[in-house]
Structure formats: C-alpha cells, structure tokens
Amino acid sequence: MIFDYAEALRELTIGEAGVTAIFGYCVVFFGLVLLMIVLYCTGAYFKSKDAKAEAQAKAALENVRKEVEANPLKVTPVEAPKAPGSAGHVKLHGVPDKEAAMIMAVVADKMQKPLNELHFISIKEVK
Question: Which of 72-97 are b and which e, b meaning 16 or more Cβ less than 10 Å from the residue's Cβ?
C-alpha cells in the first residue's frame, strides 16, 4: 500500500485544482492583511508615545516660561533640549575645539557611521 504521488495528481480534477489554488491565495492574502494590521497598530502606538513625550516637553517648557514671567528678577538658566541624535557634551583635556571636531569627523569617517550615532565621552592629547 505505497502511496503513488503521480497517481494522486492525475486524480485531481480541474475544479479541485481551482478550489485548491483559490484557497491558497486566500490564505496568503489573509496573512498579508494580518501583517499589515500588526504593522499599522505598532506604528500608531509609537506615534502616540512620541506625541505624549512632545506634549510633556511643551508643558514643562510652558511651566518654566510662566515661572520666569511671574518672577522676572529670579531667572534660572534652562537647559535647552538636545537636538535629535545629540550625544551630549564632550570633555576636552588640552585639545582645542577645532582639533576635537576634526578628530570626531575623522573617527566617524573611518567607522563609516554618522557623527550623531557616535558618543564621545572625552578627548585627551597623549604626549
């Protein structure tokens, strides 16, 4: 009782083959639609998360502005928000700003990475 695939294929009628093909297409398109829904929901989640963070930053800045307007003689310095991709401050030990900028540019070029993806902690001249 060995199953013969060639004989099984000969027994498949055109109608059965059509139904099998349509069922296969439906399964594939259902999977694609399901994937599209998951990606859309994920994107919506992250957009709302970014919108909340932006609203909180604006509210904090508005609170500081109101405080400064209420007490004009008592002004406290406000740290400006960092630019997207900013890595913060770099400690320079005996290196001029121009040379430090050139060093960072050379390192970024050799690593083939954008400068805003690198994080420099300090630059020190070795003598």
Answer: eeeeeeeeeeeeeeeeeebeeeebee
DSSP structure class, residue 117: G
Write the pLDDT tens digit of every residue in 74-110: 656 667 666 565 566 788 888 888 998 899 889 888 9
Q: Dihedral through CA 52, CA 56, CA 57, CA 58, nearest 10?
A: 100
List the one residue out of 119, 110, 44, 63 whose CA is nearest residue 86: 119
Strand partners, 123: 92
The predicted pLDDT at position 39 comes to 97
The domains of the chain are located at 12-70, 91-124
Torsion angles phi and psi, residue 122, rounded to 5: -155, 155
For residue 94, give both structure tokens: 């005996």
* pLDDT at res. 9: 60
In whole angstroms, what is the distance from residue 97 CA to residue 20 CA?
Answer: 70
